[in-house]
Amino acid sequence: MLVVKKFGGSSVANPERIKRVAKRVVEEHQRGNQVVVTVSAMGDTTDDLIALMKQVTNNPSEREMDMLLSTGEQVSIALLSMAIRDLGSDVISLTGAQVGIYTDDVHTKAKILKIETSRVMAELNEGRVVVVAGFQGINPNNDITTLGRGGSDTTAVALAAALQADVCEIFTDVDGVYTADPRVVPGASKLSHISYDEMLELASLGAQVLHPRSVELAKQYGIPIHVRTSFNYSEGTIVEEAPNMENAPVVSGVAHDYNVAKIGLFDVPDKPGVAMKIFKALSAQNINVDMIIQSAMRNSMNDIGFTVTQDDLRKTLLTIEAIQEEVGFKGYTHDEDVAKVSIVGAGMISHPGVAADMFETLAEEGINLEMITTSEIKVSCVIKRSETEKAVRALHKKFRLDNLEEAKNYAGIT
Amino acid sequence: MLVVKKFGGSSVANPERIKRVAKRVVEEHQRGNQVVVTVSAMGDTTDDLIALMKQVTNNPSEREMDMLLSTGEQVSIALLSMAIRDLGSDVISLTGAQVGIYTDDVHTKAKILKIETSRVMAELNEGRVVVVAGFQGINPNNDITTLGRGGSDTTAVALAAALQADVCEIFTDVDGVYTADPRVVPGASKLSHISYDEMLELASLGAQVLHPRSVELAKQYGIPIHVRTSFNYSEGTIVEEAPNMENAPVVSGVAHDYNVAKIGLFDVPDKPGVAMKIFKALSAQNINVDMIIQSAMRNSMNDIGFTVTQDDLRKTLLTIEAIQEEVGFKGYTHDEDVAKVSIVGAGMISHPGVAADMFETLAEEGINLEMITTSEIKVSCVIKRSETEKAVRALHKKFRLDNLEEAKNYAGIT
Questions:
Q1: 3-class secondary structure, A95
Q2: What is the ipTM of this complex?
Q3: Binding positions for ATP (chains A, B) (predicted)?
Q4: Distance from CA of B89 to the nearest CA of A (A)
Q5: What global pTM score does this model have?
Q6: Does B86 contact A57 at a Cβ distance shorter than 8 Å?
Q7: Candidates 3.90.79.10, 3.80.10.10, 3.40.525.10, 3.40.1160.10; correct CATH number of B2-172?
Q8: pLDDT per residue over A284-303, tens digit each?
Q9: CA torsion angle for A131, A136, A139, A144 (degrees, to 10)?
Q10: From 3.20.20.80, 3.30.2130.10, 3.40.50.10380, 3.40.50.11600, which CATH number describes the A244-414 domain?
């Protein structure tokens, strides 16, 4: 079996933890498996390098930032390889350039184009553990690039795809994907399996276990991802193509997200191209619009509501003011005192009553729904911020997620 | 003009110093010259990495040590490039691998085999300053190697040779090569020029300005080295092929070295192969023997004396004991209470009275000579340690080195 294992920065934050990771890797290797390990920079290394950089310049070239930051993973792979060798496995470390992780040339947020497998395969066939620097590659000009957010997860999945690995294990500080945030719902269950699409919806909703980018890549190449903790040996959650869908719970999880702000535009002229103008202006400012709702017209005027992250709110309001005259809407409101609650489940496709069950449950709790959007495997509602936990608990109970065997029996019974 | 500049770890020890180096580089670039800069790791970075490593393992693979330590220079080149760009010069940093500094595969002390110039020349021709990581290269297997002691000086000189640079400037914390250690001889003069051979003799004698390895390389390719300080703009010392030898001082400098231990072997059988056996055994232990003296025979027995560094003394004595029976010498002594004093000068070749002058001067001071060796451009004496400073001052005065114009007039007048 060929296994790719990825350990994040907190798993290799100090020499003790590096040795613990090494032990885990060597155990796998000594079971007779081929093992490729990819690691991030140790703990705060990246932040330390950025702090040092800021003492030199406030306006760094992105190419040189990549040159600087890529040293963090290089230190990790060298130290981890030393620790693995001490425990008796033959091992070699490789930088992104040495592997041949080719990317485009967008420094600080490069995309992987192709991974050369010959060096890694040759080392594996020599019986070595191969330790690869995460987060980095080289562009066609032979310059070092970094992959930006979620980069080390992406390295791991891309390596697994290129090497046709049997599984890609992502070690984090949580032990799997839960049906809800255990801090909100103490009885939340750990999911043993989840589909790529469900994981994507959960990840983008704030369950920050796996970066969506790596999930998309895993889905594209059909690589199973095993999300588990580096702190113990318990099984985590396997993310894969919808397995046994007939037997899966209809709803897999309840997610919530506080980083939401709601904007309403009043009396927007109802003519072609108006929505386009608004959202193009926001997109030009790199503002990511999430939910969008356009109400029924009255007097040839519409109301348009949408949500953005709270971080983007100020920029959003400035953009709206700038285009108000041109677009011709009468006014706008905004509200930060909101949150988004969602249910996610691949089974919803074949159980049409699920959305209605959600609305009923929230109504029974006296919670007002300010916005609603639905996709094939997700229903999201914007509600008052203070009612978030109550909503999550009620939904978790409604869909019987504290007991996954029971949850499978749920079938849209309202 | 194409200039290669090398800045050591203390010159780039913190952001302030990095900015100062950047200013100096940009001034050169803005004078219209092509500039290649090579730098070491910042200040204590290498020591810090080694300390971190020791928390992981006591027995690191040398390949992984190179992987680890080479990050130090990579951080330096990124930060220096950022600082240079801030001051208005276009610039690019390159690792040893990116330049194509090809070495053998002796990790931690690799030798440069070849330098690819195409990337560096292309960047220079784009008008960029090129900042190259010192101390590192890649072996034929595409693995990162480091060059060991004096590695960054060697990178600079090898780059200068490969690029056919006009000069290689080595910036250190001293402002040039002096006729004696100014702490011992306050009136010591700074030499404006010195030959490669003289520099080699001085460097190996403890005037630790330039590593002998880089001087040898510069001599081989005829690259002038300008040794100067990064703390001010004064001219330093130019090391080059013996310039105007007729007009150079006969003696260029007086060096001393405290890191010397003297060993004497008594009654060594006078038959072929005996000296070979002794020094082969020492060499097998990586002990560097410096001076060797074999006295005239009596009763078909010899006395053999030699010196090693004090660091190697213990290992030397163990080795001698181990071979005593086989070689058949009667006994041995050792003495650490000694030092070596030398005079170096290319002009000595044509002035045969210089050695005699040295002996006379030391005799006048009442200093006993325990061992003597001579080469074409050097005479070295082992003396009692406590008399070192007196010896150096007397010799410096004798050869008129406090005034280099006068020193040129000295011509072996005893």
A1: coil
A2: 0.80
A3: 6-9, 172-173, 178, 183
A4: 12
A5: 0.82
A6: yes
A7: 3.40.1160.10
A8: 888 888 888 877 655 667 78
A9: -100
A10: 3.30.2130.10
